[in-house]
Amino acid sequence: TVARPVDHIAFRARFDLKIELDRVDGSLRVNPIQIAVDDTPLRIRGRVGASLYRSARAAGAPPSAIQEYLRAIGTQMSINDIGSDATFDLIVEHRRAETGETEMGRLIYAGVERGDRKTQLLRWSVAGTDQWFEASGVGRSTGEMLMPVNGRLTSPFGYRRHPILGYRRLHTGLDIAAGHGTPIRAAASGTVNYSGRNGGYGNYVRIAHSGGIQTAYAHMSRIAVSSGTRVTQGQVIGYVGSTGMSTGPHLHYEMIRGGQKIDPRSVRYIENAQLSGPELQRFRSTLAGLMQVEPGAALARRERPRDLDTASADQPRRADRSRS
Ligand SMILES: [Zn+2]
Q1: CATH number of 152-266, picked from 3.40.50.150, 3.40.980.10, 2.170.150.40, 2.70.70.10
Q2: pLDDT, tens digit (0-9, with 9 covering 90-100), for 284-306
Q3: Ligand 1 (ion): which residues have CB within 5 A?
Q4: Ligand 1 centroid vs 162 CA: distance in angstroms?
Q5: Residue 164 CA to ligand 1 centre (angstroms)
Q6: Residue 85 needs a FRET pair 20 to 30 A away by CA distance; which of 134, 181, 307, 318 works?
Q7: Would you give the DSSP letter of residue 143?
Q8: What's the first-to-final CA gap in the chain, in angstroms?
């Protein structure tokens, strides 16, 4: 029934750090203990067999990694065209503490070997965005661009008599009529590089995508993103309105490539990025390094996992146990 001061506290502060507090001469002393972490990634290879998914599961790949793998490989080939004799090869981020715990991360490599045809995809970050790149350094598009609103196309790209100005000029985008307040979605992932009023465009958002493509969205009633924001495909960036030079609620949707406005319907996929110079060299040496990883090496048993709990505080210390 008498309160007494804490003598010892020990806890795992982080995957790679344990902290102990000990009372020494009446005050608590902090003792951080680093836990060594082996971050050899986990490589899993095997024959595709009857089902790539089931074979990879049986070989020890986590379901989320296999799903990422199928999505990545799916940008290159139809999964159904991969024969049963092909070899799958995937590498997942993996960390193992010397105390025995493990953590699985994201898929970082996806490969398929069909005879002497090799497909190699490496996750690589360009301007803060992760993409799959082929061994040659060419980025893979992740999918089709989507139409930013569901609505009726009322005016295509091309020369027309302008509804307000009255003379013929290039209509630099698509007009899609939709109800006031209809959500407008990013056609593809990218970074917002303009958000705000923009003359006749009214409330306007422009997004820079990979491959030198930009998309722009005009006449919004309300903007939902600010400049500098990363947006993912399908994310709501604003709402249909009639701000600026407009005759009624619609989205004026533009696509810009190399400073030229082009017909948004002429580009179905975001252009592929190409790594070059020092970045291509870093990319190649990362890929070469990963190819050196032995399958299963990350799981190889340690001789004796270090046991940091032997000096735990909730039981009296035993003289025959030394703290490592
Ligand atoms: Zn228009």
Answers
A1: 2.70.70.10
A2: 999 999 999 999 888 876 656 66
A3: 175, 252
A4: 9
A5: 11
A6: 134
A7: S
A8: 35
